[in-house]
Amino acid sequence: MKKVTLLIDSKNKSLDVGCLYEVFGATALSDKGVQCQFVHLDMLDNLPFHGKLGLVLDSDVLIISGFNNEPFRQAQKSLSSCANQGGEIHVIENERVFSFVAQSLDGRVRNSIFAVDGGLNLITWGVNLIKLKYGISVGSDVMKGMAVCPADLMQLQNEYEGDLQASSHNFREALIWAEKNLDKVLTVEQVASRACLSRRAFDRKFKELFGTTPKAWLTKLKLEKAKYYLQNSDIEIEKVAVLSGFGSYINLRNCFNKNMGERPSFYRVLNRV
After folding, report:
1. What CA–CA distance (Å, rounded) separates 7 from 25?
2. What pLDDT, in 10s, does the model give residues 138-153?
3. Which of 32, 37, 85, 86 has the fewest CB atoms within 10 Å, i.e. the most exposed one?
4. Which run of H or E residues covers position 61?
5. φ and ψ at 223, to 5 degrees?
């Protein structure tokens, strides 16, 4: 299941909460099969913090806003569980402030948590996250349905769409092709070739636009597709490796061991729908 959970304190940082609702409350996400749930912590005061996090451990993405340092220390075990299942954890907090929190967390959790500055930039950050996690077309649909100020929307479009459209139609088409044909994408060079760029130029352009490498992006997409097949089908694991673009069971197993801390077969047993 594609699932984003947002833990928010609606009493604080109303601008941050509004920006998160603008992006992750979009109907375009549900239309594409992405479930987003907003959990208002001020309505769950009777639950301990680790109990609140226990509600969201099956999420692909966990976004946390409105917390101080102490609750994170108390919830380290639950955060570890979320990280061990391959979930991403994003905290709306100044990075310098959050660095003090990170010092108290174990290495696996620390490497899975990303600090994000609050404010209007959450809109551009959220759209970019959706594009990387669920596909460029999904992020574009979310952006088209926004009710933000036209000037802000134009800036957002210029930031994430302008370069794609103005400088290279082939670049955009190559990314969309890769998303739809993961079973055929064995190397980044294949995508770069479709974009009519060298591997070096392709890597540089992708990094400038999305803040990550095309290899990391493709690995994340393939891993999500493999997890879906393992959870929702009886397809043999060797076939899952081919369908999700890893090419072989060994590549799939190595990716799971590195990112999930377990073998694909064990993941299937624990997460079967």
Report:
1. 13
2. 887 887 777 555 445 4
3. 37
4. strand 61-65
5. -65, -40
